[in-house]
Design a protein that fits this description.
Structural class: mainly alpha
Low-confidence stretches: none
Order of helices and strands: HHHHEEHHHHHHHHHH
Strand order of the largest sheet: 1-2
CATH topology: Farnesyl Diphosphate Synthase
Bound molecules: geranylgeranyl diphosphate
Number of strands: 2
Number of domains: 1
Largest sheet: 2 strands, antiparallel
Distance between the termini: 31 Å
Helix content: 55-70%
Number of helices: 14
Radius of gyration: 19 Å
Strand content: under 5%
Shape: globular
Length: 307
């Protein structure tokens, strides 16, 4: 496989977004699959509302492109990417609930609980969370059950108590939800809350490609740098952008009194850290030469994104 010129990047991102959308639509049909009894129409409609509503599909893209480094069949990577996107969408649904961030707008449309009701939104999130693990254990993901098991466990750990869910808990504690505001280590919190899923997207390719230890480590390092860069860019957008560009309210970190990379490092300091992380991401990929050109572009895209 040869390297891809940067101009190719937007096309590749769009193609994976389209393929992911089609795959999620097929996974979220009303007809039950084997061993299911029935799929309630209201639940399915809610899950489709929040899953087929666009979004950059950055996480599936990372799975597809990290898998491409190892020539993993695209159909397998797309399934793993769709599972990851199910977890991401569930986290957004639950994060928007009144008990969490109480948001009205997501991806430029009413949040699911505003469109429906809290109970439907909770169940739609639960349905997406469990569907993700249904998907990663399917035979079509990889012929070797051990690879499916490793992938499933990695996804569970990225999503769960020591990953995204734990990070959300630390975030709420830092906001003072459970009494006095707890002092939080922003880098650690964000590594869990948003970084863990992005990192999973990068190591998923190595798992599916049964990579050598050094190759796995390189994608792990890349994924960690990219995860932190994503969050710094997010914190910068929250102070520098507006709701129209973001598709969700801006300035929320200040409203909630959150400690972020920007409050901790200042805008210039956050930008400097972002550049340092981009260099780290590049360095981690040096092992792969031109095969990782798209992943290099992905790190720049994450740092420079506008929404
Ligand atoms: C409720 C268990 C639980 C977890 C919530 C990740 C998370 C924890 C909440 C998401 C809230 C949030 C806005 C975090 C900031 C970073 C982030 C995940 C932004 C949205 O991701 P994008 O930009 O979204 O990839 P799209 O819409 O493109 O998919």
């Amino acid at each position: 496989m040869t390297g891809h010129p940067p101009s190719d990047f937007a096309n590749r991102l769009d193609t994976t977004a389209d393929d992911t959308e089609a795959l999620l639509a097929a996974l979220l049909v009303d007809q039950p699959v084997a061993d299911e009894i029935t799929r309630p129409a209201r639940l399915m409609e809610a899950m489709r509302y929040s899953t087929l509503a666009g979004g950059k599909r950055l996480r599936p893209f990372l799975v597809v492109e990290s898998a491409a480094v190892f020539d993993v069949p695209r159909s397998r990577a797309l399934l793993a990417g769709a599972a990851l996107e199910c977890i991401h969408c569930y986290s957004l649904i639950h994060d928007d609930l009144p008990a969490m961030d109480n948001s009205d707008l997501r991806r430029g449309r009413p949040t699911l609980h505003r469109k429906t009701d809290d109970a439907t939104a909770i169940l739609a999130g639960d349905g997406l969370l469990t569907l993700a693990f249904d998907i990663t254990t399917r035979d079509e993901v990889h012929p070797d059950p051990m690879v499916r098991l490793l992938l499933t466990r990695a996804l569970a750990r990225a999503s769960g108590i020591g990953g995204m869910v734990g990070g959300q808990m630390l975030d709420l504690a830092g906001e003072g939800r459970f009494g006095d505001r707890e002092v939080v280590d922003v880098a650690r919190l964000q590594q869990m809350k948003t970084g863990a899923l992005l990192r999973f997207g990068c190591i998923a390719g190595a798992i599916l490609g049964q990579a050598a230890a050094a190759q796995y480590q390189a994608l792990d390092d890349y994924g960690r740098a990219l995860g932190e860069a994503f969050q710094i860019a997010d914190d910068l957008l929250d102070v520098e952008s507006d709701a129209e560009a973001l598709g969700k309210p801006s300035g929320q970190d200040a409203v909630l009194g959150k400690t972020t990379f920007v409050t901790q490092l200042g805008i210039d300091g956050a930008r400097a850290r972002l550049n340092h992380l981009l260099a780290q991401a590049d360095q981690a990929l040096s092992l792969f030469g031109p095969r990782a050109e798209v992943l290099r572009a992905a790190a720049r895209f994450v740092a420079e994104r506008k929404n």
